[in-house]
Amino acid sequence: MKKRMKKLTALLTSAMLAMGLLAGCGSSDNGASSGASAGAESAAQGEESTGTVDTSEHVDLKMYLIGERTPDFDEVYGKINEILEEKLNCSISVDFLSWGEHDTKYSLLFSSGEDFDLIFTASSWCHYEQTVALGGFYPLSEEFIQTYAPGIWEVVPEVAWDQARIDGQIYMVPNYSNEFGQDVLAVRGDLMEQYGIDQITSWDELKEFYLACAQNGMYASQGGPWYQYFQAQGLCTTGGAPKGGELVLYNAQDPEDLNFYYLLDWDGFADYCRQAKELADAGCWSSDVLNSNDERQTGLLTGRAAGMVWNMGSCLTYGRQANSENPDWNVTLVDPVSDMPKKANPYINNGVAINLNSQHKERAMMVLNEFYTNPEVYDLAMLGIEGKHWEAVGDDQYKVIDESNYGVSNNCNWGWNNADITRTEYIENRTALDDTYDAMKEAWENNIKEAHPYDGFNFDSTKVSTQFAAVEAALGNYYEPLVNGLVDDVDASIEALRSALESAGIRDVLAEMESQAAAYVGE
C-alpha cells in the first residue's frame, strides 16, 4: 500500500500515545475458506487487489452513519460510487441517525429486521456492546477479514482487534487513529470579555461563565455540562455500562483504584444534579432541551448559545465556521479540566460493523476496505471533492476551500480513520483560534495520564441482557431530566430513579460487571 506518511510506530506499541484529536459469507464456518489463499496474496498487495473474490454480480449496499447529511454529501458519495462501481461492481447509499435520535432508533434497525449492510458503531457511546448482546452484528473471523479486507488487516494493529473482541470474537472493524477521550468547549470570546471572564479552566469558572450568560439573556449551551463535572473529579465512563457508559464510572486518574462508581451510590451525582438544577433554573440552557433534535453545533452557529461542547477537532471546525460568519464573536477553545492528565480513547471508540442480516457481507467488507485504505476514497469521505471543498498541499496536507457545504471529517467518516493516510491541514492565514488549538493540543500531548486497567475494559451484558434492557428503559424516564436540571425536586427524582433501577435489576448488572472486571484485571 502506498503511504503518504510513515506508519506511527508509537500507535503499534501503546494505545496511550495520543497523536490525533479528534468511530463464504453467512456460512457455518464464519469465513471464506475458498478465498483464504487469495486473501493472503491480497494482503501483500494492499488495497490494489481483491484476489479471486467474485464481483460479477452488481450489488447495491446501504450504510448507516451518525449525525446529519451535509449539503454536498450526495455529490461526494456520487464520486465515491464511481470508484466502487469500477473496482467492486457495487454502489453504496447512506442514511443518517441524528445525534438526537440514535439512542432510541439504533437498536430498532436490528429488531425490525431493516435491510442494510454497514453501520457506524463505537464502544460505550454508540451501541457496540449492546448490539453484540442483541445478536445484531456479524462476527468477523480473522480469515474473513484477511480475505475480504486485506488492506485493513495490514493496517489495524493487534491491540485494536483485541479491544474489539467480546467473548473472544470480533464484531467491528476498529479505526486506526488515536484521539483524546475528553471534550472541550468552543465559546464566544466576545462574551467572555463582555462578562469580565478571562479564562475557563475549572468547574467553578465554567459555572461562572454559564451564570453570566444567563444573567445577560443568553443560553450558555444546549444542555447540562455533566461530562465536564465528572471528568473534573477524575472519573471516566466505563465501556459497555448502561447509558453509553455513564451510569457506572471509574477513577481513570488512579490506576490503583479498581472501584466502580455507580451513580446512585456516588454522592457526586446528587451534587451535580443540584448544581444542574441551579443552572437550569437560572436559564443557562433551554427548558425544552429534552425535546430538541438540534445538532451539537446548532446553538453556537445560530447565535442562540454562547458555546458548544465536543471534541477538540470538532470545536475547532465549528469555531472557525462561526468566526468566518461572525468575525466579532472571536470564538475560542476552553478546557474546564485543563490541569487533569488526558485519557486517550481505545481504538474501538470509532468503528464499523456489518449487519448480521446483510445479504452482501463479503462485498460490504470489501467496500469498507476501500474506505479504509484507498487514499482516493478516504480523501473524498473525509474532505469532500478536491478542487471544490479542498486542495492538496504536497503529498500529505490539505487546504480548505469550502468547509461549510461538506465539512472536514464531519460526515461520520471516523469509523475508518487511518493514521497512515490522513492528511493534516495546511493553514495559510492563521488565526488566534488556530494558535489556541495548537497550544491546547501540545499541552494535552505533554500531559497524557498513566494507563488504568479499566481503560480497555468493555462490559459484556449478554448474561444479564434482560436486566440491562430494563435498566436502559428505566433511565429514559428520569436520567436526562436530572442531568439537565429539569426536575422539580432533585432528591425525590433521584430516589425515584434509584427505585426504578433497583426494580430493573441494576444489582445483577453491577455484580456481573464486577465479576468480568476482576477476571479482566487478573488476565
UniProtKB/TrEMBL annotation:
Residues 453-521 form the DUF3502 domain. It holds the Pfam family DUF3502. Keywords: Signal. The keyword Mitochondrion does not apply. InterPro entries: Bact_solute-bd_prot1, DUF3502. Residues 1-23 form the signal peptide. Residues 34-51 have a biased composition (Low complexity). Residues 34-54 are annotated as: Disordered. This is ABC transporter substrate-binding protein.
